[in-house]
Design brief:
Strand content: 15-25%
Radius of gyration: 15 Å
Oligomer: single chain
Order of helices and strands: HEHEHEHEEHHEH
Distance between the termini: 21 Å
Structural class: alpha/beta
Number of helices: 7
Length: 165
């Protein structure tokens, strides 16, 4: 799944940064051969904020946050987000389900990357999104693409069963 997401991102983005734990050799090997930057995050155990901080520090411009465990996201979804950002480069873009529930990916303008570098814990970018709520532009993606986030073996099994049914 990680390789798939990185490959999809690379299809539509000139630069892709993947943040990983320092000792995560298996995931590093999965990404071998892809034209991207692997960024080892020494404090990754802290939570999601450590990865976002590292990515924000390394990003040369706007930052797209795309979790690796979202199997419904496709290259068209990513291109939709990027096209929308090109039209509104000062906005924070947030993918939503077809019925408008916010999820991922999220694109944050370059001038907010410094704020991302102050995040702590496992809350992701919620604090920055809340502080700049007026700048958020919701981008509807098909079905549940922006929400399908599979964190457990049981969630993966249920997702696979739905797709087969």
């Amino acid at each position: 799944m990680l390789r798939r997401q990185a490959h999809l991102a690379r299809l539509v983005c000139p630069r892709v940064i993947v943040t990983l734990r320092v000792d995560d050799l298996a995931r590093m090997q999965v990404l071998a051969g892809l034209d991207l930057t692997i960024l080892a995050v020494p404090d990754a155990a802290e939570g999601m904020a450590a990865s976002i901080r590292a990515g924000a520090a390394a990003a040369p411009g706007a930052l797209m946050i795309l979790p690796a465990d979202m199997p419904d996201i496709d290259a068209t979804d990513l291109a939709t987000m990027i096209d929308a950002f090109d039209q509104a480069p000062q906005a924070i873009l947030r993918g939503t389900s077809a019925d408008g529930r916010p999820g991922h990916p999220v694109i944050i303008p370059a001038e907010l990357c410094a704020e991302l570098q102050s995040l702590r814990g496992d809350q992701g970018a919620r604090r920055v999104l809340a502080l700049h709520h007026a700048r958020i532009k919701l981008i509807a993606l098909p079905d549940q693409h922006a929400l399908t986030d599979l964190d457990t073996p049981e969630a993966w099994a249920a997702w696979r069963a739905r797709r087969q049914g």
